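Continuing the batch. This is chain 6 of the set; chains 1 through 5 are on the previous pages. Same settings as before, nothing changed between runs. Recording input and output for traceability.
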Amino acid sequence: MMNDMMPTIEETATAADLAQIEHEEWLRVLNTWAARERWEAAEALHGPLLTKTEWEQHTADFNQFMDERDAAFENAFKCDEDDDPDAWFSDGPCK
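Output for chain 6:
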């Protein structure tokens, strides 16, 4: 099996590679913390973006929109002739 012969990252990575990976992971954590602090500062200055009631209304509206979109998407690919498999050949493009 080919996967048994493939080297793992532990076998091929140098100390510099592992240090780079660890450094990039730490930068992602720092960026997450910084973004959270910026958001908290903006909320402290301007208040929350939405109140709990507004958020619940937005969520309900969005879920309704997504349900309508899903139904429209499903209906777009339906055909009146779906019940008759031979209709494709007698009335459709394959006649």
